Amino acid sequence: MQPRFGIRTKLLLSILAILLISYSTLIYSTMKTMSASLRSEVDRNLETNLTYARSQYQDRARVVKYSLLQPASSKTVQEHLVTGDRPWLDSRLKDVHKVLPYLDFLLVIDGRKRIVAGINTNSYGEELYLPGVLDQALAGKRAVHSTEILPAAVLCQAGTTRYCEQESNAEALVNTVVVPVLSDSGAELGCFVAGEVLNNHAILPSELQEVSGRDVEVSITQRDLRIASSLPATLRDISTLSPQVIDVLERGEVYRGEARIGSRDYETVIDPILNSRGEFVGSVSVAVATERFRETKRENLGNILASAFIGIICSFGLAFLASRHLTGPLRQLAASASKIEQGDLDQRVEGDQDDEVGVLASSFNKMVQALKERDSIINKKTDDLQDLNEQLERMVDERTSALVMEMGRLEAVLTSLAEAVVVTDLDNRVVLFNPAAQQLFEMVPHRVVGQPIEQVCELVGFTSLWERIKDLAQPDRGGGTKEELTVKGKRLYVYLSSLSDEFGNFAGIVLSIRDVTVEQQVDRMKTEFISTVSHELKTPLTSIKGSLQLLLTRSKWLTDTERQLLTVCFRNTQRLIRLIGEILDISGIESGGMVFKFKPVSIGELTVYAVEEIKSYAMGRDITIVNTVGEHLPMVYGDSDRLIQVITNLLSNAVKFSPEGKVVMISAEQEGNYVVVSVADKGRVIQWSDRDKLFKKFQQIECQERGKVGGTGLGLAICKEIIERHHGRIFYTAAQERGNTFSFTVPIIGETDAKG
Fold first, then answer.
1. High-pLDDT (> 70) share of the chain, %
2. Strand (E) positions, 167-263?
3. How far apart are CA 740 and CA 734, in angstroms?
């Protein structure tokens, strides 16, 4: 079937569309860039000329101010001003006027604003009315210059005689400078007042135009009337500023806009002139003719359009020739491809062009040959794939059987477990409830399996675990935890752990529940039995100890062998009494029978008592005890006898396991709301395998240097129970090379403790 549009037509239309889009985009972006550039140039021209005009307008006032600062600070001028020496001051003002001939008036007034001296004035002794600028200069004791609108009467009074003949309501825009004259103590003696009437200098904008060029027009207005302009005489009276412009200028803002003056279009910027009180009194405006910029824009647009037209024509011609060269071989390729589609893989394309078309023809022939080879390979591989599929089906059957067997084993294990096990899925619905759980909670599986774990927790009394289960279901909150609960009179240990899938995502929760009610009852009975036996043994052992001690101290007729045997009996009796005492202590703490008398105590005093108790034992082993606990530490809230027992026990262990001749150090420091007490020795570091035994009952550690040291194995366990009753903690820290440190924390006394 012959296509409606051939490759040549599509190629030509595509190239034409690309050319039109490209040139249109180029023209648009070029014109936009040109307009922005011309706009930027106009704005820059306006800003430059406005800055220049404003500086020229204000520089005269600055020159006057700095010229008057020198005589205002002169001691001689101050003395003549105080004495009111008018002739001398008039002479000095004439000298200044020779330097500044463009000033229309120059006066000296005293502290009460009366004219003392001046040029061309006869108003001596009269008060000069210059509100705002004169008050600012005298009050601020600094030179002030501003532009003011002054009435004809004030100008006539100041010495501008041509305004003496003006009407009473006549006004003029005056560049005014006031420089105060101050004494050494800072008192206002008077001031110099100078003014330049801008209405008398209409040629100032023309002078500025000579620098800026004829395309720039400069004007100065008094309020809305032009008083000076570089416009031709025929256009100079085109009047006044519009009310909209005046509104902008009265707010102290710069006005920008377009204006047509005569037959020319201008871009204009108008800068307001404010007096010393911030009131609008006039403006400086700069207008730049836009004809030159628009002509440049039109010329550039014409050049761009002509270049675009010529480029499109040339490109279209080249595209037409190229399409004719390409379409012939492509038609042949299309015909061959159609035959290959029908299954004829013996097709070949003849191409001798040394270009991309020739490469395409060569690639096409290689592709056909490759297709023919792959067709034969595919036929062969299909048979092999069928064999592999059969093998895979056999492997799947084998793996399925193995998985079924493994699931059977797992089910058997869970069924035989003595602990209750509950498993949930990722939606926290129960998927497993083993027989031990059924027996523990007396619930059949069909009431539990498939139900939300929250509902199951309510049924079995595990409501307090729901928040912890929700935490384990959160991302990055995995791990396990152990909880203790009492449900229906049974003491239960509940172990919770989260499950993860192969991607590490949450897949469910496992709850393992163990009933420890019987174990705790047996443990309590054991503790009560040990406590009862210890009480029964303590009284006869105390009597035996007293009898042995009496025999050893008063029996002089004993032989050495008999004394030695009695000494062994006495030492073992002491050891049994100490063991029974420690057993009674640990039993009393665990059962709650030991009474603690809490009150404010000083750690410094407790350490002193403990060191005194252990000093003789340390001296016997040549061990030095260094106490660095200061009196600056705050009081703690605790039982002084029990805390001394803890410190004494730690010191005793440190002395016992330290080599002879070493130092044992006891220190304390405040950390937050706790005082941390530490006992450090220089003995061999306790091995990792033995550190779990440190605070457990009836556990002893062998010292590699001295073998097994005698003891009950209850000392650290008692210390742990006492410190925990004080709401603190006890812990072990190993030194890097040699030495061990045992530390415990005691809370600092608070306001409630002190009241109690």
1. 78
2. 171-182, 188-197, 216-222, 225-229, 255-261
3. 5
SS3 422: strand
Rounded mean pLDDT of 710-717?
Answer: 67
Q: How many helices (H) does the chain have, and how many strands (E)?
A: 19, 24
Nearest to 473 by CA among 425, 420, 421: 425
Calpha distance 540→545 (Å, rounded): 9
- 105-126: per-residue pLDDT in tens? 999 998 888 999 999 888 888 8
- Name which of 288, 390, 238, 265 is nearest 40 in CA terms: 288
Q: What residue type is 260 in one-letter code?
A: R
Read out DSSP for 275-315? Answer: -TTS-EEEEEEEEEE-HHHHHHHHHHHHHHHHHHHHHHHHH
Return d(Cα 631, Cα 704) in angstroms, integer.
38
Q: Token digits for 441?
A: 């909670």
635's CB contacts (< 8 A; 6+ apart) are: 600, 601, 602, 748, 749
Binned at pLDDT 50, 70 and 90, residue 371 comes out as confident
Sign (positive or negative) of CA dihedral 91, 95, 98, 104: negative
The H or E element that residue 703 is part of is strand 702-703
| Size (the chain), residues | 756
**DSSP 8-state secondary structure symbol assigned to residue 646:** H
- Angle made by CA atoms 414, 416, 420, in degrees to the nearest 5: 60
The residues near 543 (Cβ < 8 Å, ≥ 6 apart) are none
Contacts of 154 (CB under 8 A, 6+ apart): 128, 129, 130
Contact 627, 668 (CB under 8 A): no
User: What does the DSSP assignment read for 32-101?
Assistant: HHHHHHHHHHHHHHHHHHHHHHHHHHHHHHHHHHHHHHHHHT-HHHHHHHHHT-HHHHHHHHHHHHHHST
Written as six digits, the tokens of 320 are 């037409």
Which residues lie closer than 8 Å to 686 by C-beta, 6 or more apart?
694, 701, 732, 734, 740
Show the tokens assigned to 477: 């909150």
Q: Six-digit token pair at 634?
A: 């705050």
DSSP per-residue letters across 449-510:
TTSBHHHHHHHHT-GGGHHHHHHHTSTT--SEEEEEEEETTEEEEEEEEEEE-TTS-EEEEE
Tokens of 724: 């925990």
Closest to 41 in 3D by CA, of 52, 53, 33, 30:
33
Dihedral of the CA atoms 617, 619, 622, 625 (nearest 10)? 90
* Beta carbons within 8 Å of 156's beta carbon, 6+ residues apart: 163, 164, 166
Q: What stretches of 178-232 show up as alpha helix (H) in DSSP?
A: 204-212
Q: Give residue 472's identity as a one-letter amino acid code.
A: L
| CB burial of residue 655 (10 Å; 0-12, 13-18, 19+) | buried
pTM of the model: 0.40
User: For the chain, how long is the longest CA-to-CA vector?
Assistant: 153
Report residue 373 CA to chain centroid gap. Answer: 64
pLDDT > 70? residue 658: yes
Rg (CA), the chain: 55
* Tokens encoding 296: 């440049």
Tokens 């309020």, residue? 223
Per-residue pLDDT tens digits for 303-312: 777 777 787 7
The secondary structure element, H or E, covering residue 372 is helix 356-416
Gap between the Cα atoms of 30 and 49, Å rounded: 28
Nearest residue to 82 via CA among 222, 204, 183, 212: 183
Nearest Cα to Cα of residue 577 among 552, 542, 543, 528: 542
Q: What are phi and psi of 246, to 5 degrees?
A: -60, -40
CB atoms within 10 A of CB 734: 14
